[in-house]
Design goal:
With 436 residues, the chain is an alpha/beta fold. It has twelve helices and 20 strands. The protein is globular. Bound molecules: guanosine-5'-diphosphate, 6-O-phosphoryl inosine monophosphate and magnesium ion. Guanosine-5'-diphosphate binds next to α1 and β3. The site of magnesium ion has 5 residues, from loops.
Length: 436
């Protein structure tokens, strides 16, 4: 199997976990390259839903090596709990490899994340409050503490001491929060070091050797294109490079080793947190009325659109081909897996946004100025649905109702990308492999 980047093509939660879990059996390595435990990837194990936050979804196969790359930020306590959860489910984590260059989320990162959101008030980002942004801030500012620092107690203490000399005054004087002692942090983190040490590795070297030996790698993206620090709806983004390019910097494998870039798109769109969302529908509890609120509520309930990490209700809207085309470009998508198509079986007709209108101007491309995106009115094409026909049992493309095929083919036409995988339910087998 050619090495592949699997990337969210919307605002996250597109079903990356399901598709990674489905195709990981064809790969020798599955690597997370960015983000941290802000991610929530759902995989189905027997009759249980498991939420993975840091562990690459390839962990479900014993012959697949899960790798946490250098571009990831790791909350060690969360990772250790996740490993225990998986082991209790009979899933071995013994093959896990953790990059020594990945940065560590410290307790003060989580404090800063929460405090900064509070400070921003109604301009908040709506973060997951897991300390992701502040940890990446320290990385870029060259003040971060890395996995390899855990290997040497003396170095770790020194780095914590240096960090606290800056963090404590800010915690206390700017935010009025509690401060930390070096001892407190070492008491918590040094036992983590002992548990994680056997998994630490020179992962860039390991992966490059794998490439040389003809092995295949699946790079599992977290979040999504529109949450990317450079290409997303800044500042309403996460703090890492979610796009396909991040797979190279976040692992140390050169871009020439990547053969395929699979985008994951939901058959509609959701978003958690703040920021522009042109096709957003409303919810009755937020004062939404009419068909807009009926459709919004139906997408949310039929799609079970509640965050895996925070439990927040996800904002829901119709498929947006403008961002679909944009995601195809900035990631260089070779093909797409379309997920949650079954959710649309609830609707008489289905809308697709093909362009935006703002101040008398039509945009069929992603607008240069964020303010346009905030005020954009979607231009919709309305397609006939397949209401009441249960498609969750379909296993070949031919079995799908005619209008379902027309919907998929319309999305291919307006985004310009082939949809090689079509997902019709959360289980592994509820999938149509069209050209995989
Ligand atoms: P991720 O963050 O991209 O991995 O996505 P999440 O796991 O946060 O959210 C996707 C949700 O949709 C999960 O609950 C999945 O089990 C579920 N899911 C994935 N594919 C399908 C599908 O084709 N149909 C339905 N009904 N649910 C799906
Ligand atoms: P997966 O991998 C959806 C969003 C947050 C917030 C913004 C910044 O499951 O698709 P952060 O805590 O990262 O600083 O928050 O990014 N966000 C996600 N939204 N799915 C995710 O991950 C997300 N990870 C972060 O809601 O708007
Ligand atoms: Mg998710």
């Amino acid at each position: 199997m050619p090495s592949t980047v699997l990337v969210g093509a919307q605002w996250g939660d597109e079903g990356k976990g399901k598709i990674t879990d489905l195709i990981a059996r064809d790969y020798d390595y599955v690597v997370r390259y960015q983000g941290g435990n802000n991610a929530g990837h759902t995989v189905i194990h027997g009759d249980k839903k498991l939420a993975l936050h840091l562990m690459p979804s390839g962990v479900m196969y014993k012959d697949c090596v899960p790798v946490i790359g250098n571009g990831v930020v790791i909350d060690p306590g969360v990772l250790i709990k996740e490993m225990a959860m998986l082991q209790a489910e009979g899933i071995s984590c013994e093959n896990l490899k953790i990059s020594c260059d990945a940065h560590i989320i410290m307790p003060y990162h989580k404090d800063f994340d929460g405090a900064d959101e509070k400070r921003l008030g109604e301009n908040k980002i709506g973060t997951t409050k897991r300390g992701i942004g502040p940890c990446y801030q320290d990385k870029v500012a060259r003040k971060g503490i890395r996995v390899q620092d855990l290997l040497d107690e003396k170095i770790f203490r020194l780095k914590v001491q240096t960090a606290l000399s800056q963090k404590n005054p800010i915690l206390e004087k700017i935010y009025g929060l509690h401060t930390y002692t070096v001892e407190e942090i070492c008491d918590e983190y040094l036992p983590y070091a002992r548990i994680l040490k056997p998994f630490m590795a020179e992962t860039a070297q390991l992966l490059n050797e794998a490439v040389r030996n003809g092995k295949s790698i699946l790079f599992e993206g977290a979040q999504g294109t529109l949450l990317d620090i450079d290409h997303g709806t800044y500042p309403y983004v996460t703090s890492s490079s979610c796009c396909a390019g991040g797979a190279a910097t976040g692992t140390g494998v050169g871009p020439k080793a990547i053969d395929r870039v699979l985008g994951i798109q939901k058959a509609y769109v959701t978003r958690v947190g703040e920021g522009p969302f042109p096709t957003e529908l409303s919810f009755p509890e937020d004062g939404g009325t009419g068909q807009d609120a009926i459709d919004g509520e139906l997408l949310c309930s039929a799609g079970h659109e509640f965050g895996v990490t925070t439990g927040r209700k996800r904002r829901c809207g119709w498929f947006d081909a403008v961002i679909g085309r944009y995601a195809a470009e900035v990631n260089g998508l070779t093909d797409v897996a379309l997920t949650k198509l079954d959710v649309l079986s609830e609707f008489d007709t289905i809308k697709v946004c093909v362009a935006y209108e703002c101040d008398g101007k039509t945009y069929d491309y992603f607008p240069m100025q964020q303010s346009v995106l905030f005020h954009a009115k979607p231009v919709y094409v309305e397609l006939p649905g397949w209401k009441g026909i249960d498609i969750t049992g379909c296993r070949t493309y031919d079995e799908l109702p005619e209008n379902t095929c027309k919907y998929v083919e319309y999305l291919e036409e307006v985004t310009g990308v082939t949809m090689s995988i079509v997902s019709v339910g959360p289980d592994r087998d509820q999938t149509i492999m069209r050209s995989w």
